[in-house]
Amino acid sequence: MGLLALMLAVFFYRGGISGFALSMASNALLSRDTTTADQWLTIAQRLSGSKSQVEYLLAKKTRMDRSFIDMTSHLKAALKQGVDPDLLEKEQVLANVSLARLILCRNLE
User: Is 78 within 8 Å of 52 (Cβ atoms)?
Assistant: First the structure.
């Protein structure tokens, strides 16, 4: 019984269902599975208390999908929600690198 109480305490300390959904979305993005990440982010969006993290992960997902305009709107929303500007700057740099690669590939064709 004590172990179950401890497990429940840790589950809710880590964000409960919202934290679980964000964790699963983050893991899906690490494995570059944007479809699964999108499903978990949809769940997380419906739950309270996770808006800033959802916006940040949506920015990462849209960068991976090469949807740079959508990524910009998610980065701005994440910044308004209080996400660390250094994290957002990293995503912007990665987007710039991806865009430069696309331009370079098109020029080589």
Answer: yes
Two tokens, residue 78: 């994440």
Please count the residues of the chain.
Answer: 109
DSSP state of 47: S
DSSP, collapsed to helix, strand or coil, labels residue 12 as helix
DSSP secondary structure letter of residue 67: -
Q: How many Å from the N-terminal Cα to the C-terminal Cα in the chain?
A: 65
Q: What span, in angstroms and rounded, lies between the C-alpha atoms of 67 and 88? A: 16
DSSP code of 17? H
pLDDT-based confidence at 17, cuts 50/70/90? confident
Domain definitions of the chain by residue range:
2-108
pTM, rounded to two decimals: 0.77
